[in-house]
């Protein structure tokens, strides 16, 4: 039996290019009700920081893998924001506000595309406001909301709840008690719902892949 809609969730941080790739197809791969949950990935127990490359060559390989995957998916050529990685705290507070008014998905999609299709850092207030305007969120309302302690607390609480649910990194999809982590999480979750095996770890750029029961702790990477 398929889980109820409240048991299906997509976890993302707007700083993650892997989450961007997953966000571009998760609605297609998992049609029907799906909660989009903003979280601060840096507070998750197994998160990729994108700052751990040992050398410039390793970073070039990582970027080339992501660019190749974006091309395979038929997306716009990937443009890296400067700086990368960037601090997503402001953008994730805006995403938390968007969730409170029912606009999580359009805001997240617009913000991801600002970052990784237009190459604009979401640490920049103007970039966040451009994404907000694209889904009819008033700039002043966004600025006021992102300064509220209650919004910061909501984001922190959502991140802590995600960690308790077994989310170790983003992107991640949770179907009931099963957590799928990595860029191909949408396909893996869809395969689980069909009763088949998920994709192989080799298909996941930059390593992270797989699934784990939520009760087992952080998602497999």
What is this structure's SSE topology?
Blueprint: E1 8-12, H1 17-23, H2 26-29, E2 35-38, H3 56-72, H4 89-100, H5 104-116, H6 125-134, H7 139-146, H8 149-164, E3 172-175, E4 178-181, H9 185-194, E5 211-213
Parallel strand pairs: 1-2
Antiparallel strand pairs: 1-3, 3-4, 4-5
Helix pairs in contact: 4-5, 4-7, 4-8, 5-6
Give a description of the structure.
There is one protein chain. The protein has a single domain, classed as Glutaredoxin (3-Layer(aba) Sandwich). 44% of the residues lie in helices and 9% in strands. The protein has helices spanning 17-23, 26-29, 56-72, 89-100, 104-116, 125-134, 139-146, 149-164, 185-194; strands at residues 8-12, 35-38, 172-175, 178-181, 211-213. It has a five-stranded mixed sheet, sandwiched between helices. Helix 4 (89-100) runs antiparallel to helix 5 (104-116) and helix 4 crosses helix 7 (139-146). The two termini are 27 Å apart.
Average pLDDT score: 88
Determine the CATH superfamily: Glutaredoxin
How far apart the termini lie comes to 27 Å
Domain count: the total is: 1
Q: What structural class results from the helix and strand content? A: alpha+beta
The total of beta strands comes to: 5
Series of secondary-structure elements, N-terminal to C-terminal = EHHEHHHHHHEEHE
- What's the shape? globular
Strand content bin: 5-15%
Largest sheet: 5 strands, mixed
What's the architecture, going by CATH? 3-Layer(aba) Sandwich
Q: Please tell me how large the radius of gyration is.
A: 16 Å
Estimated helix fraction? 40-55%
């Amino acid at each position: 039996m398929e889980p109820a809609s409240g048991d299906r969730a997509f976890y993302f941080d707007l700083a993650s290019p892997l989450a961007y790739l997953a966000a571009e197809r998760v609605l297609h791969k998992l049609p029907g009700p799906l909660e989009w949950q903003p979280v601060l990935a840096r507070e998750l127990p197994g998160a990729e920081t994108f700052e751990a490359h040992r050398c410039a060559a390793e970073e070039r390989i990582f970027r080339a893998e992501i660019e190749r995957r974006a091309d395979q998916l038929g997306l716009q050529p990937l443009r890296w924001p400067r700086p990368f990685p960037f601090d997503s705290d402001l953008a994730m507070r805006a995403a938390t506000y968007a969730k409170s008014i029912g606009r999580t998905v359009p805001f997240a999609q617009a913000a991801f595309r600002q970052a990784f299709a237009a190459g604009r850092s979401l640490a920049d207030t103007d970039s966040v406001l451009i994404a907000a305007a694209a889904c009819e969120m008033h700039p002043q309302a966004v600025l006021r909301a992102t300064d509220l302690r209650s919004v910061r607390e909501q984001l922190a609480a959502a991140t802590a709840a995600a960690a308790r649910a077994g989310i170790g990194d983003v992107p991640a999809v949770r179907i009931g008690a099963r957590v799928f982590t990595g860029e191909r999480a949408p396909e893996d979750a869809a395969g689980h719902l069909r009763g088949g095996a998920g994709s192989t770890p080799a298909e996941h750029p930059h390593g992270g892949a797989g699934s784990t029961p939520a009760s087992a702790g952080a998602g497999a990477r």
